[in-house]
Every structure is written in structure tokens, then in C-alpha cells.
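Section 5.1 Outputs to date
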Amino acid sequence: MILKQYYLGCLAHASYLVADERTKSAAVVDPQRDIEQYLRDAAAGGYTIRYVFLTHFHADFLAGHIELRNRVGAEIVMGARAQAEFAFRAMKEGNVVDLGDVRIQVLETPGHTPEGISLLVFDRTQSDTIPHAVLTGDTLFIGDVGRPDLLASIGVTADELAEMLYDSLQELRSLPDGTLVYPAHGAGSMCGKSLSQETVSTIGEQKRFNYALQPMSREDFKRLVTSDQPEAPDYFVYDAIKNRQERTDLEASLRTSLRALGVDDVLRLKNQGAQLVDVREATDFAGAHLAGAINIGLRGKYATWCGSILSHDQPIVVIAEPGSEEEAVMRLGRIGFDNVAGYLRDGMAALEARPELVRTIARVTAGALAEQLAGPAKPFVLDVRAEKEWQAGHIAGSQNIPLTHVRERLADVPLDRPVVVHCEGGYRSAIAVSLLAAAGRTNVTDLVGGIKAWIASQLPMQVEATSGAAV
């Protein structure tokens, strides 16, 4: 038996190739939309990908089931409660797919979504009755469980899903302690609140250390799993719906999106409402960028923040270092943002003869900001981290507006005094200052290195007590 995990760090997403060495039959589970790695490994091993399993309709990325079906003829397999526009094999509790000496058996484990399933994987050369592993999708994570409150499950309440999740976890708890646990997400995913950095565990370890698998009443469990969940990005509902639909595959989408555009074409699209996203590093963006562009760097949670900040309904133009345009567009495609109109040919070099179109962003060090705050004309310090991060420690007098709310709360950011923006390390603040600049603000400065640099400079921090009072 071959069981290989593919981990995509930028989306904290795990997918799997399960193959039988004797029959050379294989299945892919919860694939990402760019499928070349599965095809490459299948070809290297001489495997035929016969099935593609979706454990549920994912909300945080567009899955590659359509791509695998189109490229290699893989049959799509889902839980019996799933409803989709495309043809698929509906599997109920206990149904199996035999690859040969490898067997995949379905457990219906709703809770994160109504149609959720987990997959028991048996190596029948070792045992017909004791599973080698369970692929748990978003039902059970390492250290956490799938949140039941996402709007992805349209028509089902969080309370109803939490009820289902409680029962599903009891079934998973009953598996042998040595069963390997392979989830669909790890730390950094918004599909839970405290996922581990580990990407594989065992049922026994999870029974010991996972807070949601500890003995408790149904009502206590429901309160626990629905509290303190992170805010879900706006694009989650969009992706959950797209994953149900018959749609264009990534290869066809890239053919229309990877178009080199001249400066005048970009300006025309901008005037028609297109979104300009500059995917370079924050330092490069601050040094020079096209007026009106939003900075969301490739070296970070690029796709997640693009899904949170950009619209899937308006055209997108990418501005990148030459050679990285395809990566930027493909990673937008991973979350179903196929609305890319093209990219700026030659990147910022195209603007060398058009200096009137170029803008800069001021930056300030932690020490210099401390001096400004000690002076008579204090700047307005805008902390764009999540509220919990701000409460755990912040610069005294700073105001907290989480990044996803900056646009809607522009009126809360003063026009008549300097504004210094920061986050934890600089990635989110670079997005925030670009949003403010695109809105016409000229009084905005980015704190280099964020709150980490402030702490490293041994400058004072303020902490909020649980009552909300400062301590």
C-alpha cells in the first residue's frame, strides 16, 4: 500500500494519494486544484488514478476533482448526503472501494458539513478488520475538530451541525488507538481554532490530547466547539458553492488569465473597476508601486488574504516580478478566483517612463515610532491584528481594526494626523497601508517588523484584562 500526504502550507491543506502496488490502482483524496503532483507521482509509480474522493464540500479552497476527472477520467466519490451538479458515486456508511489489497471504507461523519465523510484505509495484506489509517477530512484535526459554524453549510444551523459532530467523533473515538489520523488541514487553517503544527497522529494520541475528544456532555461539547472560532473569510461561502458546481477546470482558466497587458490596458481595466494586486514583497511595494494597487505578497498566506480582500466578481490584474506571474494567477485559481484579466507586462519596469503613475509608502522603525509617541504630535497607531492578538499585548493608545474590517471602517482612521499601521510581523500591515493608500490616504506609514520589532526593541506593551480594562 502507498499512502502519501501532500501538504500545501499556504492553505494549510493536506491531500492524499492512496495506491495499491499489486493492481496499480489509485485514489486521490481532497486534491488541490493544480493536480500535476498527483499525476507525476502516479506516472512514476505506474498507477492509474481511478477515483477522486471529496470528504466534503471544502470552503477554503477549490478542490481538484473536476481537474482529475477531466484529465484522467477519475470517478468522483462523495458522501451520500452530498448534492452536486456533476455526476459522482454517492457512498453511505460502510460502503467500500477496493483498489486490490487496499480497501477504502466510508464512515459518514457529518458535523463540519452535513455531507462530511471520513475514509478508513485498510492494508489487507496486514489486516482485513483493523484499519491502517483514517482520513478524517475536516471532521477531526490534530488537536482540534472541524468548526460547525461556517456558512458553507447553508440551510443547517451551527447547533444542528454540532449535534452531528458530537456523534461523529464518538464513532472516530471507537477506532483502534493505533489507527493513524490524517486530516485535511493543519495549523493556520480557518476551519478550526487550535489546529496543531503536526500533520499526522493516531486515534490514541487524539483521545489523550485533543480537547474536543475528552469525555463531556453533548451540551458542553456544543458550547466548546462553537465558541472563540476565528472569523471566516468572505470567500468561504463562494468556494463551498463552487465546489458543488460543474465548472471550468484550472488549465482552461489559466489559458484565459495569463495575458500580458501593457500599461494603458491596465489603466483602462482599472478605470472600469478592475482590482490591481501587487504580489511583490512589502519593501519593494513601499519603494514604488502603481497607484491604486493593493499589496498582497506571494510569500505569505497569499490565497487566503486575496480571498478575504479581493472580490471574485470584478476583474483582477496582477503586478509581479517577471517570472512569477503564473504562480500568482495559479494560486488565485486555487481558491476559485478565475476572474484574472491578465498581468502587467514587465512588471514595474513598465512604469519607468510613467513616473506620474508611481507611488511610495513611508516606513518607520520601532525606535522612531517610540520617539514620535513620546513627542507632542503623537501619530495614530492602527493595529490590524485580530482582536485577541491585540488584547494579548499592544502598543499603548493603539486602536484595533482587524485587517478584514479596514475598508468598512475607513472613517475611524483620522485624516488630520499621521497614521502608523502595524500587525505582528509586517505582512498584514502592508496590505492595510495599501488599502488606505488606494482609498486616497497620504498620511499613512508602515511599522517595519510589526509588533515583533517593537518587542525586540524592549519597548513597553499594554495588555487587556479579561474585563476589558487595561493592566
